[in-house]
Write a structure and sequence with these properties.
The protein contains two helices and three strands. It has a three-stranded antiparallel sheet with strand order 2-1-3. The longest helix has 10 residues. It is globular, with a radius of gyration of 12 Å. The protein has one domain. The chain is an alpha+beta fold and 79 residues long.
Length: 79
């Protein structure tokens, strides 16, 4: 399913050029730039989740992959 326009109710995948609905949150941080507890996020569709996770993981940045629903249910959790 593709959503447009982009807004908080219809988040789209962070992969370049992708307009598919995001269903995953990839939490990461760059230890050279961020404190250990800081989490940056990319959101991904099913098709790009593994590619984006691999990109972050090979650099040692990936901390966690969870569903967007689970992430948003956490206190302060907005991707």
């Amino acid at each position: 399913m593709i959503f447009d326009p982009v807004n908080d109710e219809n988040p789209i995948c962070s992969a370049k050029g992708c307009r598919a609905a995001a269903v995953w949150v990839l939490a990461w941080n760059n230890p050279k730039l961020h404190t250990p507890e800081r989490r940056k996020t990319w959101i991904a569709c099913d098709d790009h989740r593994q590619h984006l996770a691999d990109f972050l993981d090979v650099r040692g940045f990936l901390k966690e992959v969870v569903t967007l629903t689970e992430w948003n249910a956490r206190p302060g959790g907005t991707a």
